[in-house]
Amino acid sequence: MVQTTLIIPTAGQGLYEFTAKARAFVGETGLETGLLTVFVRHTSASLLIQENADPDVRSDLEAFFARLVPPADDPKMSYLAHRLEGPDDMPAHIKSALTQVSLSIPIGGGQLMLGTWQGLYLFEHRDQPHRRHVVMHISQ
Known about the structure:
This protein is an alpha+beta fold. The chain has helices spanning 19-29, 55-68, 89-98; strands at 2-10, 14-17, 34-40, 45-51, 102-108, 111-112, 118-124, 130-139. The chain has a 5-stranded antiparallel sheet, covered by helices on one side. A 3-stranded antiparallel sheet has the order 2-7-4, with helices on both faces. 24% of the residues are buried.
C-alpha cells in the first residue's frame, strides 16, 4: 500500500481540480492495478468527480449550491444554531454532508480509470482561503 497527502490551497468557495496530481501519484507508484482512495480531512470541504471540459459546469454547480444552502445570515437560514465561526461555516458543513469526503477510483493499466471528461475536485465550502489536506491511498 502506498499513501501520500496533497495540500491544496484554496482562495475561497469553489471547485479546485487536482486530477493531474492524482494521475502523477498513480504513475510514480508503477502499479498496474489497484484502487485509489481519496479522502479530505476537513468537515467544511468535500470531494467530487465531475466534468473537467466545460468551465460552465463548475460555475453552475457553485451557483446551485450557493442557492441550495445560502449563508447563515440569509433570512431563510434563521433556524441555524451554529454561528460561532461566521455565516459561511454551518452552510459549509451542510454542503459537505450533501456531497462526499471520500472517493474511490479504480486503477487499470497503471492509470486512473476515469471517463474522458471526468476530473477530481476539492469542493471548498468556506469563504476564506484554506490549506486543505487530501489523503491519497492506493490498495492492491
